[in-house]
Amino acid sequence: MLTPIEKEILELKEQRNAVLLAHYYEESEIQDIADFVGDSLALSQFGRDSDAEVIVMAGVVFMGESVKLLSPQKTVLVPDLNAGCSLVNSSPTDLFRKWRESKPDAISMTYINCSAEVKAMSDVICTSSNAEKIVASIPKEKEILFAPDRHLGRFLEKKTGRDFTIWDGACEVHILFNAKELFLLKNEHPDAIVLAHPECDESVLNYADVVGSTSRLLKEVQENSSTKFIVATEEGIFHQMKKNRPNATLIQAPTEKGCACTQCPYMKLNTLEKIALCLKNLEPQIHLDPKLIHRAREPLERMMDVSEGRKVKWEPIPY
Ligand code: 13P
Ligand code: SF4
User: Fold this and answer.
1) Which of 228, 165, 224 is nearest to 192 (CA)?
2) pTM for this predicted structure
3) Are 247 and 103 contained in the same domain?
4) Could you tell me if the CB of 270 is within 6 A of ligand 1?
5) Which of 90, 191, 212, 229 is surrounded by the fewest CB atoms within 10 Å?
6) Which atom of ligand 1 is nearest to the CA of 267?
7) Count: domains in the chain
8) What is the pLDDT of residues 179-188, one digit of tens each?
9) pLDDT digits (tens, 9 = 90+) for 268-292
10) Domain presence at residue 242
């Protein structure tokens, strides 16, 4: 049985020819009413490929911007424009420009968790699900400038054996997972598989059996025959994990003692009420300058090309 607010959203979606996309970190009631739930890459692809005129992104602003960059003709709504991201905040445009200019010959590979302005100074974008593939596609002789997540950067450096110059940003949620506490928990549950998002500190990743994007971690829970998992990422992901493996034991990885802070405060700004309201008003929308769209979509499309198996030329993109 649908609640009145859920009914209203479904009716508004039909009137507006809209689809609702949700990230795994959204509240479970938002995930349940969404047309599609996914990680950053899958949300961008779904938004780009959808025939709907209106895309409601129940996620954070950079996710809405990514859809707008790939499909500028669509109306992209984000229920609350305050839904930022600490990685976006940790890479302001002016500082990033100086950094980028300090290594003009390097390939600037930037995590999708950044502003459209930063994308417009980058050569290629990546998400946590395609980052290794993107690195592998960059000519070996090229130096890589990686921003803004230092933990994903270090993880990639280690995995690929390439030398990176890494920006010093971090996710305010994932850095709180604690290695010592995880070690103690793992000792209590030696049969558990430890899953971690690469935005966690290296000391936490060292204890992980699987490091990957939200969709990769979910896949592991779906496919691994183990019945116990310790999960080091935002707690919204538990909703799909529980749906897929109702009988498995899922344990949230520990943060420092006493801190119940494994929720992303930005993702959690979205509510069913705000989703209904944005569909009613067609606001707040993502508005981007056409010139910015033109430059910022190039590295994003390059990412899609590599990710979807198309050939890429690594010529520099002027900025
Ligand atoms: P994913 O692309 O793995 O869903 O990650 C997005 C994110 O913001 C993680 O904090
Ligand atoms: Fe940004 Fe971290 Fe929230 Fe992901 S969990 S959106 S990286 S603040």
Assistant:
1) 228
2) 0.97
3) no
4) no
5) 191
6) 8
7) 3
8) 999 999 999 9
9) 999 999 999 999 999 999 999 999 9
10) yes
